């Protein structure tokens, strides 16, 4: 048999910093999407399998908004504040589209089942069904090809570490992901809605007795997850301008879901940790082992290994335990 | 909740106002790399004078049941390629039937979705229909491998317009013919192109398809010492940053991407966005208008090799094709589909109206087609093949002539 | 709790192991159908069973006008594919339906089986070649090993975690087929073997254009599997699976070694998926890395859910339907995932038990127990009694 696994430490050493930066950038996107999985899981103890489609619908909205604003395959010839305003508008539409999709998913695939008190497997399967429906509606409408590239701005290197240029988009995405994470973390800890989410996560029945409107909390959680997916969608389009296709959400969703589980599903900080770790591990593994197929293999192997040691993920899984 | 909604609305209004003032113009921001020599562009080519026309001389006679079939993808993710071919075949059949009142050939289509696992059903169905005496298909190498034996057992001749796996002609099948060069043809053409473009160092990137792997092998061999590095990507990949950082460290003059446009387009786009200034070379799998759509301005650095003639440049073919396709210009492998159908129709016109005779006809065929000369060796490979070079100019793929 | 009844004779079990009803009626009538069947005398059941099996065997030979997949797909080959999906669904039903473990990477086992058949029979492989029929048990054994290797570290995880881990497993198998050069990636293996024998024209009986022999081979395997599973379900293993599925915590507390029985289900499911993969490899005659993706896993899951989780006859029907629809209506084949996705949602909302519901036959001598209860309590509605009642009655 041929040698099929070999470690190229030299390549990893030579590309270490760029792999780190790229890994963190994608990790940030994974983390934002992972938050959607984690929040819903925290509240309902159910995986929203259709969250990847919530994300990709947002990405389509971002692309359509930018295209109709005149963005296209060329670097736009605009002042920075005009670009920023356009991106902000695209962000708003992306978040709206994702939030509406999340709301629809909740109404169609979750609420009727909750009313019946169906077993867990039933929820998961209906969410998988919903995910397929959205994917193939997009396929029906847009065909198998991705949307044409949309370039948002001239991506310039900002500084370099040891000869590796660090580009503006990486800095933007990583810092935005961390800021969003802090905001969500604080939101869950301090706001009224956050308190409600934690209460329902901890004990739905007692929370209801204490005057928490459980149905409203659940819907809000889905919408919150959708809004965050919309943010991720903007960064995704920024980083992968031609990655918006019917399967795009699924491919990224699997990674984000893995990230959520790795960090501890139902745990906001776990989502950030899991996302960034997964971005790094995948990138390092890919360079070390010499081909892109290894990216996913390494990620899943690490996931299985971590779950063997810590069955609830690195940081554990209880959203309800978070204290204000 | 309400406070944040208000803030959101305010931001949206602000953004709208600013966006309304903004005015994007598609100013050419990418400057041409002046060190790359300009290649002369072919603007139009004439159809070869001696090309066989499916219309024939109008005197053909055949039973009303005479049928040829297209078997291949009609739906699914590979549908576009199938549609390109079907329209080419359809055009040939329509031209034939319009001119031959006493020989109306029926075209039947069977859908495999391009999937080896789904291909045996439609192929068996076609071979069981005695009226079908010749087939154009199957378009992909995997499904061709799965079904070659069925054709062989049924003695049904089939000409593939697009399956390029080199191993396909090594099975001893007497019914298999290929209307284009296999993967091994393009590899040696790559150094010819890099030489013309004055590129000394080439970085080879391959995907995980049979096509990409095989082509990367022959190209690497032909390029010899000019190869400064290589990497592998995977089908469906959308982010190429790990590969790109390796390439940028080597600063090659050219990147040869051995694969399809689905990955090639985002790859080149991200490569250029990260500051790569060299040229990008892709094979026929990348040469598609969709590559330009997806890679955007980055595609300006792209060159292609293809063992195919630019069908859209033959005005007479292009115009006729648009009538069949409902306005779409000929796509990749449309000409091959047309030519393959022409070979079969010419045989029917000559009185070869059962499977055995039509198979003999194709085996001994020797005539000019629209795209190339069709004469096969005993394995089913074409004997004469030319590889053309292409480049992207003003958002269009244009031919730079034979390599 | 445990009744400890001995395993019944194979013949007796087989009679009950089958309520194979070819004709599907509306879901609402199924309950009545099932009642009717359960109240038939044993002898009539046998007679119906024989007719049903004969009808199943005759399926590829009768080309019923509206039902046929022609002229777009050869009917016998379509039957073979339906039977293959049915076998896959029966296997996945053990994992999902019986033991309640959500497996989103079942296609991984299918792929392993296909590669086993290819590696040991295709001329493209350098390994020792063995007769094709031996690859069926070999594929089953190898996939069991894979199933156990995957199961040991992961089956201690709770349901949702298991879903993502199995999904990852399926992806790893697919990617390794690309990465490992000996597995030949997309290039694949041609001329995978087939059972021996040639017909009058000198072509192999089991050529890859001959659907009927492959179909008969597959349903023979299915019938053998059904007999074995029928016995297993009514044994301690089957009862423990159901306990596990209904409430894992309660089962654990009541002394069911949950991990061991999960592993059982996983292993058996894997073996069946592997066998189906080996059969598919033989019929198509070609194996490469295409189409062993998550979508396939979900399609398999649809088959189980559609038929009714936990009902192996439902699984057969579900598998056949999932294979049949895109072959029959080629025009809509493009939308099959859209349709099946919608079916999943609608089914979960309105009929989560699928076409056939679960059939908790827990006892070997259930029929006798039913009678006794009926006599004792004079209760006419015994057959609709929930599982719990039946269980108590058995003691």
Keywords:
heterotrimer, B: 403 residues, alpha/beta, Rossmann fold, 7-stranded mixed β-sheet, 5-stranded parallel β-sheet, 13 helices, globular, disordered N terminus, C: 395 residues, mainly alpha, ABC transporter involved in vitamin B12 uptake, BtuC, 2 domains, two-stranded antiparallel ribbon, 64% helix
Describe this structure in words.
The complex is a heterotrimer of chains A (324), B (403) and C (395). With 324 residues, chain A is mostly helical. Chain A has twelve helices and two strands, in the order H-H-H-H-H-E-E-H-H-H-H-H-H-H. Helices cover 40% and strands 17% of the residues of chain B. Chain B has a seven-stranded mixed beta sheet with strand order 7-6-8-9-10-13-14, with helices on both faces. In chain B, strands 2-1-3-4-5 form a five-stranded parallel beta sheet, with helices on both faces. Chain B has a two-stranded antiparallel sheet with strand order 11-12. In chain B, helix 2 packs across helix 11 and helix 3 packs parallel to helix 4. The longest helix of chain B is centred in the N-terminal third of the chain and has 21 residues. The termini of chain B are far apart. Chain C has 395 residues and is an all-alpha fold. The chains are: A mainly alpha (324), B alpha/beta (403), C mainly alpha (395). Chains in contact: A-B, A-C, B-C. Chains A and B meet through helix 2, helix 4, strand 2 and helix 11 of A and helix 1, helix 8, helix 9 and helix 10 of B.
List the SSEs and their pairings.
The complex is a heterotrimer of chains A (324), B (403) and C (395).
Chain A: H1 9-14, H2 16-44, H3 51-68, H4 80-116, H5 120-142, E1 157-161, E2 164-167, H6 168-190, H7 192-202, H8 204-209, H9 214-239, H10 248-263, H11 268-289, H12 293-309
Antiparallel strand pairs in A: 1-2
Helix pairs in contact in A: 2-6, 2-9, 2-10, 2-11, 3-4, 3-9, 3-10, 4-5, 4-9, 6-7, 6-9, 7-9, 10-11, 10-12, 11-12
Chain B: H1 2-21, E1 67-72, H2 79-99, E2 106-111, H3 116-128, E3 132-136, H4 141-154, E4 157-160, E5 176-178, H5 183-186, H6 189-196, E6 202-206, H7 210-223, E7 227-232, H8 241-250, E8 254-258, H9 261-273, E9 279-282, H10 289-295, E10 302-306, H11 315-325, H12 334-349, H13 355-363, E11 366-368, E12 373-375, E13 388-393, E14 396-402
Parallel strand pairs in B: 1-2, 1-3, 3-4, 4-5, 6-7, 6-8, 8-9, 9-10
Antiparallel strand pairs in B: 10-13, 11-12, 13-14
Chain C: H1 10-16, H2 27-38, H3 42-58, H4 75-98, H5 106-121, H6 132-154, H7 159-179, E1 189-190, H8 211-233, H9 236-246, H10 248-253, H11 258-284, E2 286-287, H12 294-307, H13 312-328, H14 336-350, H15 366-377, H16 387-393
Antiparallel strand pairs in C: 1-2
Helix pairs in contact in C: 1-8, 4-8, 4-11, 4-12, 4-13, 5-6, 5-7, 5-11, 6-11, 8-11, 9-11, 12-13, 12-14
């Amino acid at each position: 048999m041929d040698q099929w696994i070999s470690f190229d430490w030299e390549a990893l050493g030579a590309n270490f910093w760029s792999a780190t930066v790229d890994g963190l950038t994608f990790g940030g996107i994974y983390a934002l999407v992972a938050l959607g999985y984690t929040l819903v899981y925290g509240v309902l103890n159910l995986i929203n399998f259709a969250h990847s489609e919530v994300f990709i619908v947002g990405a389509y909205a971002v692309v359509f908004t930018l295209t109709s604003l005149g963005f296209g395959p060329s670097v736009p010839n605009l002042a920075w504040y005009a670009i920023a305003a356009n991106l902000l508008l695209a962000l708003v539409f992306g978040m709206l589209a994702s939030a509406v999709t999340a709301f629809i998913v909740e109404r169609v695939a979750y609420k009727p089942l909750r009313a019946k008190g169906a077993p867990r497997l039933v929820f998961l399967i209906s969410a998988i069904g919903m995910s397929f429906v959205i994917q193939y509606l997009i396929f029906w409408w847009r065909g198998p090809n991705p949307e044409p590239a949309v370039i948002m701005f001239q991506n310039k290197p900002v500084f370099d570490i040891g000869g590796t240029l660090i580009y503006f988009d990486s800095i933007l995405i990583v810092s935005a992901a961390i800021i969003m994470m802090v905001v969500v973390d604080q939101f869950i800890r301090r706001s009224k809605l956050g308190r409600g989410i934690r209460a329902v996560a901890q004990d739905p029945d007692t929370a209801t007795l204490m005057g928490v409107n459980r149905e409203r909390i659940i819907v809000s959680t889905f919408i919150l997850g959708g809004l965050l997916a919309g943010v991720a969608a903007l960064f995704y389009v920024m980083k992968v301008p031609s990655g918006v296709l019917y399967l795009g959400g699924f491919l990224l969703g699997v990674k984000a879901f893995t990230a959520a589980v790795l960090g501890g599903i139902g745990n906001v900080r776990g989502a950030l940790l899991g996302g960034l770790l997964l971005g790094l591990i995948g990138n390092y593994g890919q360079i070390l082992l010499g081909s892109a197929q290894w990216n996913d293999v390494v990620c899943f192997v690490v996931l299985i290994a971590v779950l063997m040691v810590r069955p609830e993920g690195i940081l554990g899984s209880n959203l309800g335990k978070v204290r204000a | 909740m309400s406070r944040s909604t208000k803030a959101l609305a305010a931001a949206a209004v602000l953004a709208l106002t600013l966006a309304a003032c903004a005015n994007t113009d598609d100013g050419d921001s990418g400057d041409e790399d002046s060190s790359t020599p300009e290649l002369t562009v072919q603007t139009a080519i004439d159809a070869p004078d001696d090309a066989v026309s499916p219309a024939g001389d109008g005197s053909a006679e055949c039973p009303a049941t005479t049928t040829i079939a297209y078997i291949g993808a009609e739906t699914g993710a590979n549908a576009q390629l199938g549609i390109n071919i079907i329209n080419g075949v359809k055009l040939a059949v329509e031209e034939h039937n319009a001119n031959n009142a006493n020989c109306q050939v029926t075209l039947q289509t069977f859908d495999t979705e391009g999937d080896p696992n789904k291909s045996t059903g439609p192929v068996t169905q076609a071979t069981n229909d005695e009226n079908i005496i010749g087939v154009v298909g199957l378009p992909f190498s995997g499904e061709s491998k799965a079904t070659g034996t069925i054709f062989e057992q049924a003695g049904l001749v089939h000409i593939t317009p697009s399956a390029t796996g080199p191993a396909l002609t090594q099975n001893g099948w007497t019914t298999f013919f290929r209307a284009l060069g296999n993967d091994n043809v393009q590899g040696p053409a790559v150094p010819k192109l890099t030489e013309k473009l004055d590129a000394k160092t080439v970085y080879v990137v391959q995907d995980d398809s049979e096509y990409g792997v095989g082509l990367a092998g022959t190209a690497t061999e032909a390029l010899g010492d000019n190869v400064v590095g290589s990497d592998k990507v995977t089908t469906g990949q959308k982010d190429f940053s790990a590969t790109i950082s390796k390439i940028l460290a080597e600063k090659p003059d050219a990147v040869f991407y051995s694969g399809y446009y689905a990955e090639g387009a985002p790859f080149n786009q991200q490569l250029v966005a990260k500051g790569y200034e060299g040229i990008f070379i892709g094979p026929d799998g990348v040469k598609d208008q969709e590559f330009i759509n997806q890679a955007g301005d980055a595609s300006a650095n792209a060159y292609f090799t293809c063992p195919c003639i630019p069908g859209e440049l033959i005005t007479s073919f292009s115009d006729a094709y648009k009538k069949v396709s409902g306005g779409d210009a000929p796509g990749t492998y449309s000409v091959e589909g047309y030519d393959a159908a022409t070979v079969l129709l010419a045989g029917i016109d000559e009185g070869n109206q059962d499977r055995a005779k039509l198979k003999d006809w194709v085996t001994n065929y020797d005539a000019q087609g629209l795209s190339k000369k069709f004469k096969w060796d005993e394995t089913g490979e074409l004997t004469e093949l030319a590889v053309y070079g292409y480049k992207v100019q003003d958002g269009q793929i244009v031919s730079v002539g034979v390599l | 709790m445990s009744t400890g009844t001995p395993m019944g004779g194979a013949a007796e079990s087989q009679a009950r192991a089958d309520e194979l009803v070819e004709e599907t009626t509306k879901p609402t009538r199924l309950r009545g159908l099932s009642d009717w069947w359960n109240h038939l005398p044993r002898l009539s059941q046998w007679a119906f069973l024989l007719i049903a099996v004969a009808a199943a065997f005759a399926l590829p030979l009768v080309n019923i006008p509206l039902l046929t997949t022609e002229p777009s797909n050869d009917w016998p080959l379509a039957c073979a594919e339906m039977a293959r999906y049915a076998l896959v669904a029966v296997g996945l039903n053990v994992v999902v339906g019986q033991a309640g473990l959500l497996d989103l990477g079942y296609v991984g086992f299918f792929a392993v089986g296909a590669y086993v058949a290819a590696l040991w029979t295709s001329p493209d492989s350098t390994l020792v070649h063995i007769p094709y029929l031996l690859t069926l048990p070999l594929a089953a054994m190898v996939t069991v090993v894979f199933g156990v290797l995957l199961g040991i570290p992961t089956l201690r995880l709770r349901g949702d975690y298991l879903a993502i881990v199995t999904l990852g497993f399926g992806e790893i198998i697919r990617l390794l087929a690309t990465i490992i050069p000996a597995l030949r990636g997309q290039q694949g293996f041609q001329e995978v073997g087939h059972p021996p024998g040639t017909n009058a024209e000198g072509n192999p009986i089991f050529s890859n254009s001959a659907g009927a022999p492959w179909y008969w081979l597959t349903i023979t395997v299915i019938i053998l599997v059904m007999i074995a599973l029928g016995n297993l379900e009514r044994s301690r293993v089957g009862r423990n699976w159901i306990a596990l599925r209904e409430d894992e915590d309660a089962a654990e507390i009541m002394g069911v070694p949950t991990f061991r029985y999960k592993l059982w289900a996983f292993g058996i499911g894997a073996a069946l998926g592997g066998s189906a993969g080996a059969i598919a490899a033989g019929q198509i005659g070609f194996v490469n890395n295409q189409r062993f993706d998550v979508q396939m896993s979900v399609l398999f899951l649809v088959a189980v859910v559609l038929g009714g989780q936990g009902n192996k006859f439902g699984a057969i029907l579900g598998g056949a339907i999932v294979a049949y629809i895109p072959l029959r209506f080629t025009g809509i084949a493009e939308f099959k995932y859209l349709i099946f996705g919608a079916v999943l949602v609608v089914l979960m909302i309105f009929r989560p038990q699928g076409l056939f519901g679960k059939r908790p036959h827990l006892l070997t001598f259930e029929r006798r127990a039913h009678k006794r209860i009926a006599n004792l309590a004079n209760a006419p509605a015994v057959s609709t009694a929930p599982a719990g009642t039946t269980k108590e009655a058995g003691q």
